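Most newcomers find our protein records easier to grasp once they have seen one. There is nothing in a record beyond a sequence line and a structure line. Getting from the letters to the tokens is the skill we practise here. An example says more than a description, so a record of this kind follows:
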Amino acid sequence: MSTLAPATLEGWYVLHQAWSTDWPALRSLAPEERQAVVDDARALFEAMAAPTEGGWSTPCRLVGGGADWLFVHFRPSLEALTEVELRLRTSRLGNWLRLEFDYLSITEAGLYHATAEAARTHGADTEAFQAALTEAAQAELATPHVQSRLYPAPPEGMPYVSFYPMSKRRATGDNWYQLPMDERSRLMREHGLVGRRYAGRIVQVISGSVGLDDWEWAVTLFARDPLDFKRLVTEMRFDEASARYGEFGRFFTGIRFAPDAWESFLNRNL
């Protein structure tokens, strides 16, 4: 079972965008032109907060990270994300933004345990294995827990955001993809138990990006207290799945805000 890939369930596509702002150019605008930018930004994010096609977007003020803003977009299709990109780039606000980093992924629930159980019971890649895995996947998909992972709602009362991409190590001696499925299932179960201790304090959105972007997963955390990001990630670094097999990319940390706050944020700096 060493080469058996776990089944996954997928939901919304996700795009993370980090932007910097051309503040000097904005300041050079006439007052009525600057107000037009403010009004456009507010209207744009009011519309994208609850689009008719489904999903949602949230703007965040970044702290560090080499940029000013992090925009997070959830949509039901790649086509819908393409429209989001186009609307931003052709908006008045878009004239004064420079893209510093973006990341594409899709919300994911990994079925490590179900895949390992089906392989143990029926043998991998048999018709019985596929039938058992399909049945398990359908049962998982029907649960509120998995639905909330695939189609997350905007977390209420959690203004702080942390986003980072990650992959599993493929080094000699510590190659995640050469581990038997039962071992990967055990490690992921232990890894998940750490996250569960932060239920109610952190909402975690895991999205897969294998074949979509440079890393293999994206992690988006929402919290009431930004120190919980440090606490959670520290604890997870000490479990075996991360300590031996985790590789982490760039971290972005910010604060969400409502669309009607664009006026105060932009005018305060212009």
Summary: Residues 12-105+259-268 form a domain with the Alpha-Beta Plaits fold (CATH 3.30.70.1030). The chain has a mean pLDDT of 93.
